[in-house]
Amino acid sequence: xxxxxxxxxxxHHGTDLGTRLVSGRLIPRPRLDELFAVSLNxxxxxxxxVAGAGAGKSAQAExxxxxxxxxxxxxxxxxxxxxxAYVAELFAAALQGEGPGLIVVDDxxxxxxxxxxxxxxxxxxxxxxxxWRVILLTRDEPPQELTHLAIRDSxxxxxxxEIRTFATARGGDASQAEEISRATGGWALGVLLxxxxxxxxxxxxVAEYLASEVLDQLPEDEQRVLLAASVAPxxxxxxxxxxxxxxxxxxxxxxTRRHLPTINVRGAELAFTPVLRAALRYQxxxxxxxxxxxxxxxYATYLGWMGQAVEAVELLLAxxxxxxxxxxxxxxxxxxxxxxxxxxxxxxxxALGEAATGASNILLGARIHALNAAxxxxxxxxLVRTVEAGGRLPAVLAQDAGLVASAAxxxxxxxxxxxxxxxxxxxxxxxxxxxxxxxxxxxxxPAEPPQGDDWDLHExxxxxxxxxxxxxxxxxxxxxxxxxxxxxxxxxxxxxYTGRLPLARRMWSRIPHEVRVTAHARFAESLLVYAxxxxxxxxxxxxxxxxxxxxxxxxxxxxxxAMTAMALMRHHRAESARALLEDRVRRWARGDDAAVxxxxxxLLGWSYLEAGRNEKARALLVEAVDGxxxxxxxxxxPLAAACLAEAHARCGDLxxxxxxxxxxxxxxxxxxxxxxxxxxxxxxxxxxxxxxxxDRQDTRWRRLVVCPSAPAVPKRRRLGPAxxxxxxxxxGGRPDLxxxxxxxxxxxxxxxxxxxxLALHPGGVVRTELQRLLLPEADAGTGGNHFRQIMHKxxxxxxxxLVSTDDGWVKVPGDASIYAADQLFEQExxxxxxxxxxxxxxxxxxxxxxxxxQYLGRSELTWVVERREHLEVVREEAQLEVVRLLIxxxxxxxxxxxxxxxxxxxxxxxxxxxxxxxxxxxAGAEETAYRRAASALGELGxxxxxxxxxxxxxxxxxxx
Length: 960
Hints:
Layout: H1 17-22, H2 30-42, E1 46-50, H3 57-66, E2 72-76, H4 84-96, E3 102-106, H5 115-122, H6 124-127, E4 133-138, E5 150-152, H7 153-156, H8 160-169, H9 177-184, H10 188-196, H11 199-213, H12 220-229, E6 234-236, H13 237-244, H14 249-257, E7 263-266, E8 269-272, H15 274-287, H16 289-305, H17 309-318, H18 322-338, H19 342-358, H20 361-373, H21 377-389, H22 393-397, H23 403-410, H24 415-424, H25 430-442, H26 459-469, H27 472-476, H28 490-497, H29 501-509, H30 513-516, H31 519-531, H32 535-552, H33 557-570, H34 574-588, H35 594-610, H36 614-631, H37 637-650, H38 654-671, H39 675-683, H40 685-694, E9 724-729, E10 736-739, E11 742-743, H41 749-760, E12 765-766, H42 767-774, H43 780-798, E13 803-804, E14 809-811, E15 816-820, H44 821-831, H45 837-849, H46 862-888, H47 892-905, H48 910-921, H49 926-938, H50 947-952
């Protein structure tokens, strides 16, 4: 670089710490050299660089100047404000020198006060001869008419990679680059100081520089705003007014127009980097320490107003102002409780610590609430006992009417202690939900649910008690409407337990993440996953639930263990269930919870029944059934009574067996929940046969299993938060694919067949087998090409790429799920098994409404034809049950139409003729139905079976 210095360049050193430190000491930054060159070309040779002190303006200009071979003139103005004549003389001298060259003018902000000087700068571009370039460096924004393009602080800020390279070049710790970037915002001087000195030294140097070069250069009112606003990491004009105690709009507006180092202007907000906040905090403490404390308290109060109580408390604690922190926390408690922000309350009391929280009755009460809401029952129990032992419990509970319920709820493993709290202290209606749970779990007579709503934290106490009683419908009515978040997993549990899986899955999607990680939410999820068919994963979730319940000291952990045993029983692992239960039942017998003891005895008796130890099974089941029946705990009673009926029969007491079976059916009928009884009927079909044999006119047991050809539940992929769901409409003349609710209009039948086949094989299909299923007549070569085309068309239509594994399987990827209309129909039809007769009709009609035509009617593939025939059987079974239900309801014309519809598809359906004959009997035309049956069946060489005998029963004959 050829320098034209001497009497041409006027250098004034003044306070130039930043220039002396940064100049010549930064790494080469080619991106900025290129930016300078491009910008000079775009601006006609005059470039403004506008950035705060220490941003590296001069250093980068020097770096760019070193890259040029032209003469360079460097003019640094100040500290006195130069006149326009002086500036004109400098420019004239520079332009008369050897050229064309580069002129760099530093500290141009000193020129902005004099109109003549501004005119000179405006005319500068016209004055510069061809080939000359001028770089103008300034801390303040130049008037708009002077520049349309400028390089600014954000351009000069060092990136993390540049900081890492710089630290390495200077022998520093490159691993701290990201931390330095966060602290300094890439401010060049801050980076330099942090990479070459210990933190304390760097902070002191930065504080000194910012005080002299930034703070002291501002007018007094701007200094005041800056010192006050920097208490916060980000500030608005409103916050500045709050902190200063009076309107400061003019000073704020001027401040936001300045280019101050390490401050980002984001709209109407100033964002301070940590390094600047630390420096200004140092200045506040050194200049007016008492004022600093007042500013911090004002800001903490402001945070409290804005709902950021935890941040306010942490700020005050960082300033060792514990008394004010406690005051702010106490002030925030009512609002946080009203907004159900239990997690925030927990964080608040955690931040204050045990000693400060323990000294305040308000905060102790808030912590009991928070720990209960966080399901940290063991810690909450310890806190209640500690406060009670210290004699302060009445005073703490008096702080909030809902605290009595929370304190009693966390004491629930000790029913006597929970009841004592409920009886001795006032509280409000919420404590009645906890009392109801105690009565249901431990009582010997039926308990009535309390009246009211808005149970807050204690809705789950109410819903679990309802669950144990078998009042499933009452639980589902607790779900909030309008898609609002669901905080009570028992709603999911109720839908899953009764087989309403689509609804259960939708409800699960509404549960917030912080609730999903609790033991009880995992429990609900495990039963949902089990109901969806993934039993192995469900057992894993149950094991995790039990472990989490124990860790948190949950009152419901024994129930989780009992349900794990039930899952093992249904998974045909009776020995594992028995091994789990034998010790647990002995332990539960020593406690207060009669409900879980009954569950344990029922399941243990069931396992003994499976092992052929009938007398031992009967003894346990008698105790379980008696307790459930006496106390009105009906959830498991149908299953328990059915198992007892089998045990009595095996022991030779058929009368007792009949009484137990009748109880099982009656309870299932009264609760409208038949799934437990249906499970027992599947396990022990002799129960059903014995009851049918006792009274052939009683059709209840004959019709217990509706749609027996439908599988219990089709297995369905679990949906994660980022998954897509592909639904295939397999019924009717226009099958199609629906991706996340959007019909794709796929016309190729082979693509539909591919998706339908994959839906039936959720675990995947061997590629060669899948190719054979789709293209049975093709050879390996042509079939392989055609198969690849089908896969390609599927990917084009859906965006889903099927997974081909190394061992030759084709599977749906992990982020997608496929489900078919035919599977949904089977599930909805099978669900009717668990419903009371009154609810069965609309459920079956809803299931049948899904069948809009034949299954893949245009396909002739062997497996499709077999599936089509199977679905026709399920459809016929469902429709015949609909006919029976319509007849029982006196809706004979609708029943006739349904019967005719069945016969329209299968004119050889003997049960349909029998039902039609019953309908026609009321019109005196039963012979007509009989002759139709005889004619149709005669074509097959068959007789009408029981139809004639049915007609001969007379008007009192039953519907079978």
